[in-house]
Structure formats: C-alpha cells, structure tokens
C-alpha cells in the first residue's frame, strides 16, 4: 500500500490556502469557497466524508451511528431459504428501500464490494474474469432501511461472450438489473492502467440506455495506486469534467510531482439550475501555483478568464446525442467514491450514502434474508471460485459440479459431498495436485467460507473424476 504522505500534504496545503484567502477578505468575511467546496466534499450524510475530500487528506467526521450490525446467516437448507423468501417482510413503521445495481467491466471488484456491503461473503470472488455467471440479490437491512444489492456479471460484448462460451444470461443480466434499479454504482478498477482512463463501451451503452437512473462513480482498488494525483485526473476523464451538473474546471495542466499535488485546490461552478439538482455535490478545480506558499485568490469571477482556463460551464443536455465510440466518460454521475473493496477501506462511507438515498417504500425481503440465492448455489459458487484460483488458463471453465450429498450431521454440522467432473485426465491431475495438495486446499478454503456464510460447522468433501 502506498504511503499517504503526498495526500496529507495536499490536504494541509489546501487548508493553508483557504485560511490565507479568508484572512485577505476585509473584516474576516465569510469564506464561500470553503463552505461551497469543502463542505460539498464533506459528509452528504451524517458521519461520512466525500471521496475527493478523503483523497486530499481532509479529516473525516466521526460516524454518528455504527454500521457494525451482525448480518444474518444464510439458511443451510433449501426449504428454509425458500420459506424465508416467501415470508411477508417484517415491515417497520416507516420503511425505506433502495435497489442498487452494481455494474462495471469484468474483474472490477463488483462481487467483493457487494460482500463488504453485506458484511458476509455470499458472492464468489476471483482474480479471473467472469467469476459471477448470473445476477443475484443481496439484502442489507439496517434499522428501518433495506438495501437490495443486484450483483451482476461484468458487462461484456457478444463477441467476447462467444469466445469464452459464456451463457446468454451474462449478456442480459446487467441490463435487466438496470431496469429495476433505483441507483447504479459504476465500478472502475483504478489499478488497471490499461482500462482505467475510460469507461468500457458496454458500460457507456448501459448508462445511455437508462439515463434516468441516478448513477454514482466508484473508483476501486485505490490502495494499489502509488501516485495518488492520478485519481484526480481519472475523475476528470471519467466524468467528462461534470459531476451532478457542476463543471469541473481546470485552470492549468496538472504537474506530476509532489509539490504540485500538494497545491491542488477544489472549486465548483454551477452547470445546472439549483431546482434540477437533488443535492449539493462536489466539483473539481485544479490550481497549480508557481510560487511556494502563495495564497488562494477567492475573489469574484468577474475578472477575465486565464488563457488555459475552461470557461464553458454548461452541463450535458438530457438528450445529448454523441457517438459512444468517441466518449470516454459519463457526465451525469451524481457522486464519486474512492475505496478499496478488498480491505473494506471507505466502504462504510459508501454504505452510509446509500442508506441516505433510500426512499419511503415497503421492504421486499424479511430482515432475516441476506441473499436470494439458495444455499446450494452459494456452495457451488464458492467452490468454483477456488477452482478458478488454483487452476490455470481455461481449465476451470470446463469443470462440472455435481452435489452428491447435502445433509445435517448428528452434531448439527452440515455434510456436503461434491463431485467435480473434468473433460480430460490431465485436468484431473492438475485439480488433484501432487499428493492431493490442490484439491485439499480448495476443500479447506471453501469449507471455511461456507462456515462464515452459514455460521455452522461444515464438513466438505470433494471428489474428482473424468467425464465418461
């Protein structure tokens, strides 16, 4: 993980500049820039901090409420899970609900983020693409609010789906989820320098097809990024310079060094009328001073614009028609979050924001429901996750899973026996490993994950055979 020294330095420099600008005002006048930019970058909901504020080293407020409620376990029998899904929800007095679709390119971390939001691992996670094969629902119930998370396969093209022999559901499920979503999270892997500078064509098509669904940009794996200033550049590119109707103005080119990154200053300009905006959102203005320690000029914008300053402050038109092939970002994001889903860093900030976005409405699930998946589906997915991790290249995609035994043991433990059928003997040897080391490791790790999902002792036995 990269050292946050440059980030903290940026925050300190920003604070000094704001104080200097305020002191220069006659009579210690109010500081509109600080209230407008920094508070906009601060908590949108109690106890949370904004993404850009966090990246710039602005201290986050302490949360006013803990989100550490223990999520319910998944039922171990298919019948019990069906009964829970059929049960009428135990509605609170004033229920609120929010349906969230999470979309993004394959391997962006969608399932990892879903698991972190749920507080328990029920979706498969792997470094290989196309680990999630179909859409599944996760349920977060907190006080009077219920979040329904629609975990979807990575958006891919029909050509790639044909090449990898993917099911048709992997093409249609993300689009179906968008039809039922109240809000969409667009996940981008910032550690992948090949893809991070633009949204994929499939993601842009999906957003363009459903422009009425509020969208939020989530930059994932920021802990793997050593040069934090890249995040500010990515924000500008992936939002096309506009967030929630506000233009992100760039006064001068961003200098790729520590001293300039410590002098980055944020500011908003309005692009849409206030009545068209649901709430205040942060903007970005990068100012790189030539002289060390110079203050920030927060005077009126009546002066002539600088030669390299972007003066156009008009946001995207609702029915703007642009060729998607020439588009890199989406100018209608309402908010930006930067986090590390694998470690859980800043996930609670996003979770609080989502809880605040919930609207009055009846719950869809009983509070004891964690996922719409059956226990057998969870078991199959977790075992397949381990197979993907330990087998090379395309070998894992040819493994067929057959559950031979699923029953409760004499001491209340869950007994599972699954047969793994492979097309070739060479694949069987790879899956078993030398002296059975690979298959033993898969069974051990999958069994541990299943115990965490079901909250009971799990005895998992795996067998391997060649398809006859």
From TrEMBL:
The GO cellular component terms are: mitochondrial inner membrane; mitochondrial matrix
Region annotation G4: residue ranges?
Answer: 220-223
Region span, Disordered: 63-92, 271-325
| Keywords associated with the record | GTP-binding, Membrane, Mitochondrion, Mitochondrion inner membrane, Nucleotide-binding, Ribosome biogenesis, RNA-binding, rRNA-binding, Transit peptide
Per the record, the domain of life is: Eukaryota
- Which InterPro entries does this one have? G_ERA_dom, GTP-bd, GTPase_Era-like, KH_dom-like_a/b, KH_dom_type_2, KH_sf_prok-type, P-loop_NTPase, Small_GTP-bd
Does this entry carry the keyword Nucleus? no
The way it spans or sits in the membrane comes to: Peripheral membrane protein
Q: For the Era-type G domain, which residue ranges apply?
A: 96-361
Please give the residue ranges the record annotates as the region G2: 130-134
According to its UniProt record, where is this protein located? Mitochondrion inner membrane; Mitochondrion matrix
Q: Name one Pfam family in it.
A: MMR_HSR1
Where it mainly occurs, coarsely classed, is mitochondrion
**Any GO MF annotation of the entry:** ribosomal small subunit binding
Function summary? Probable GTPase that plays a role in the mitochondrial ribosomal small subunit assembly. Specifically binds the 12S mitochondrial rRNA (12S mt-rRNA) to a 33 nucleotide section delineating the 3' terminal stem-loop region. May act as a chaperone that protects the 12S mt-rRNA on the 28S mitoribosomal subunit during ribosomal small subunit assembly.
Q: Which PANTHER family match?
A: GTPASE ERA (PTHR42698), GTPASE ERA, MITOCHONDRIAL (PTHR42698:SF1)
Q: What is this protein called?
A: GTPase Era, mitochondrial
Species name:
Aythya fuligula (Tufted duck)
